[in-house]
User: Fold these one by one.
Assistant:
Number 1:
Amino acid sequence: MRASRVTLIFTIALMAMSILAACGQTPAAPAAQAPAAAEQPTAAASGAVTKTYADMTLCFPQLGAESDWRTANTASFKETATTLGIKQLVFSDAQQKQENQISAVRACIQQGVDVIALPPVVEDGWEPVLTEAKNAGIPVIIVDRSVSADPSLYAAHIGSDMVLEGERAAEEFNKMFPDGGAILELSGTTGSGAAVGRAKGLRNKLNPNITILDTQTGNFTRAEAVPVMQAFLKKYKPGTDFQGIFIHNDDMGIGVIEALKAAGINPGDLKIVSVDGTRGGFQAMVDGWFQADVECNPLLGPQVMEMALKLMNGEPVDREVLTNETVYYPDKAAELLPTRQY
Ligand code: AHR
């Protein structure tokens, strides 16, 4: 009785299998074969396809080519794109004009890029175009400088802590002028996250016995810094009215040195702190012009592309990624200069 029941069940099972086979279907895998199914990649098993760098079209509407820092930043993106073998890097140069950057972002939205990496020339005025990108389902990574727009309009920010850079500069002046003094400030592009942050940081930490005599923009360029320094020298007596200069980037610092040399001022007569840590800045330390150079690292390509890939695959990312930086001094400048990448 028991044997015939087993035979009956076996016969029914065989019939079911042949019916399924006839319909072109495969019966459920027996339990013993289950591990083979579990070896499938999770994304494939869930129906999702994992994207790779070869699938990536990344929009990079660069803000300009105003400095050696910027040139190194552009090179970092282009070299990383080649090394990783991304499908396309959509590069443009906005020549320090926000309207050009906005047009470039709109063209990228139109093209349907995967991710936009935006280094904003200034902080304000990005809401409309960031909303357009969001509505098109294109994630935006804010790169280098910050924006004032609501963080819900972009995926993340990767760059330097500009306020900390200004605070570090202030600490250098505090050490150099323990009995107080006066400094001039050559600031970067008006309204840019870099200039706003560095100015704020300087004021946060500068000792009350050190005054900021005057501040003028040199727009982060050598060419524009020269006349600004010349005008300062006409207005204020170096050594008497002011003893130091805080310069928001090395390119402007090189312009300042040009103006100081022409006025017969020697290295070390004034205490200068700059920002970036480019080769030009290191040379200025070797030559005795800069007493400190606060690092601002432009080599952001690898981090940005890694994050862009995560966004393409719907993976979570850190909303704020700040670069780990330091301060460089003349004592190590000659030794480090040949090793500098930018
Ligand atoms: O936003 C970074 C700043 O922009 C760098 O300090 C400067 O050199 C560049 O132009």
Number 2:
Amino acid sequence: MQKKALICGVSGQDGAYLAELLLNKGYIVCGTSRDAQMSSFYNLVRLGICDQIKLASVALTDFRSVLQVLTKIQPDEVYNLAGQSSVGLSFDQPVETLESIATGTLNLLEAIRFIGAPIKLYNAGSSECFGNTGEQPADENTPFRPRSPYGVAKATAFWEVANYREAYGLFACSGILYNHESPLRPERFVTQKIISAACRIAQGTDNHLYLGNLSVRRDWGWAPEYVNAMYLMLQQEQPDDYVIATGETSKLEDFVAQAFACVGLDWQEYVTTDSSLLRPTDIAVGRGNPAKAKEKLGWQAQYIMKDVVRMMIEEKQKDYL
Ligand code: NDP
């Protein structure tokens, strides 16, 4: 029997890579967008898989809409990747962020419980839940101290999933994923902003890049590997939560230096810090310990920050050929 997956937020970076992965595994893949008639599904087109996916319009904040799609598609697995995903934007749209993430996840859990079928749910959790980790890498037992409306919303959704698993026996998992990047990342995110600017400056079509705090430290991985961890979580005997990270943390400044070095430039000649780009509260250090994922899922990141930068630069440079 072919398995059927429903990916909520299929138009995004992770949705596109996950759809590709599941199609390659022989799944029937269905995906949702808030407005499937209007979305270009650019990422799916770019991966050459758009015509293989059944697409539906679903607003996760609308219970009727969620119930309808689950009843119609009858998926074996649901991947909830939808919701406002920018930490920066969450300071300007806190209610939209909370509702799209927390109410969206709750509606999925309630609908699965209501239907009563053995539907497995993956929830896109985030390392932003931890807040500052300091030098001690966070694992699945580390308390949450989020420092953004986005982190607060993700923490809420995490506990919703944990509660429904415990209270109603749902097969529901949260992946607590650290940052993961790819050529499909939009320029609103600082990593793609840096990659694009480095390439433009190298081509002579731009001459400067303005950034916020360069001393923040993050763990950056490669998105196509991270979606495999999502899939693996739903193939286990028991539902559980997992931290997904490379285990290597670098300064944003190192990411910038690496990107400019890839195009043969010294970043210090082109980058200026701009205090208007600072967030009201930010995470100084984000460190993750993916040991449980390695032990239980057999998952381990193959690519670390410098590989991610190189692969993003190589892909961006194709725009200039
Ligand atoms: P994207 O932003 O690329 O995709 C998320 C999708 O959610 C969008 O394509 C969009 O689909 C939908 N969406 C956007 N805004 C809203 C909103 N306000 N309300 C409802 N739906 C919305 O995210 P990623 O693919 O990068 O990430 C996938 C998930 O993983 C997200 O939940 C993200 O928060 C989480 N995550 C990502 C990390 C990363 O480093 N990439 C790290 C940790 C967690 P449409 O417009 O078609 O409706």
